[in-house]
Predict the structure.
Amino acid sequence: MAHLFFSSCTIVAFLLRISSLNLLYISRKYFSAIQCLYVM
């Protein structure tokens, strides 16, 4: 039971890390697009 809980925790942490990296990438791309529009 404890092993299952530990594995689920690691999976959740991994998914959170992936989602945070994706969010950072998307926000950076969005910010650069806004910057390009502002420069134009």
User: Anything to note?
Assistant: The first helix runs from residue 2 to 39. The chain has a mean pLDDT of 90. DSSP finds one helix and no strands in the chain. The helical segments are 2-39.
